[in-house]
Amino acid sequence: AFRALCTKDKLLAAFGERPVRLSTANTYSYRKVDLPFQEYVEHLLKPQDPTALGSDTLYFFGDNNFTDTRLWAPCVLAAVCLGKEGSPAAPLCPGSGSGVPFHWHGPGYSEVIFGRKRWFLYPPDKAPHFHPNETTLAWLQHTYPTLPPEERPLETQWERRSLPQVLYFPDRWWHATLNLDTSVFISTFLG
């Protein structure tokens, strides 16, 4: 029932004109851009250009201010369907090849609703080799192959299967993500 309610056509019909807040895909994600959900889906939800800088790449990571529901209404249906309305869940709708480069924050978890997502993780005492304005896709193509095995991150790939897959990321663990398809997932931050 959830998937039937969240088809592209139904979400665009219900929320196409509603604004969404996009963040830059660099480590610090400082820049925010508001635009209609339909514009995001039709013009920006496409495979990542591997030569683009993170500061020039926009993705839908929800907004840091969850009191203004206008800015994340297109995915509020996901939160409602999952019984998480009002929680600090960040509904996410990124395109293929997009992702967030290495960063850390408090603990949380992420659940894939649709699509596939690859995670790269390092413990707090092992900082990764990366440039904060390089996209995860560029890092994977250029830096990752040069890393000796002992310097490579822990890795996992998550996708929607018959049973939900949820990834827990501990407090202050470095992590980067790469969306292998256009995907929808929800991250909840615990601290």
TrEMBL record:
GO terms for cellular component: nucleus. Gene3D superfamilies: Cupin. InterPro entries: JmjC_dom, JMJD6_ArgDemeth/LysHydrox. PROSITE patterns: JMJC (PS51184). Residues 60-191 form the JmjC domain. GO terms for molecular function: cis-regulatory region sequence-specific DNA binding. SUPFAM superfamilies: Clavaminate synthase-like. It comes from the Eukaryota. PANTHER family: ARGININE DEMETHYLASE AND LYSYL-HYDROXYLASE JMJD, JMJC DOMAIN-CONTAINING PROTEIN 8. This is JmjC domain-containing protein 8. It comes from Tinamus guttatus.
